[in-house]
Amino acid sequence: MSALEQIQAKVQEDGVEFIYAMFVEMHGKPCAKLVPVAALGSLMADGAGFAGFAAGPMGQDPSHPDLLAIPDPASYTQLPWQPNVAVMQCDPTVEGELWPYAPRVILRRSLDELAKRNLVLKAGVEAEYSLVVRNEDGSLSVADERDVDTLPCYDARSLTRMLPHLTAVSKNLDAMGWGNYANDHEDANGQYEQNWQYADALTTADRLIVFRLMIHTLAQRDGRYATFMPKPFSNLTGNGLHTHLSLWSADADEPLFPGTGDDSKGLGLSDMAYQFTAGLLAHAGALVAVACPIVNSYKRMGVGAPVSGATYAPAYAAYGGNNRTHMVRVPEPDRIEVRLPDGAANPYLLLSAMLACGLDGIDTQADPGEPNVDNLYALSAEEVSARGIKVLPPTLMHAAENLAGDEVLGAGLGMTAQGPYRDYFAQVKRDEFMAHHHEVTAGEVARYLTLF
Question: Which CATH number fits domain 3-93: 3.10.20.70, 2.40.50.180, 3.40.50.300, 3.40.190.10?
Answer without folding.
Answer: 3.10.20.70
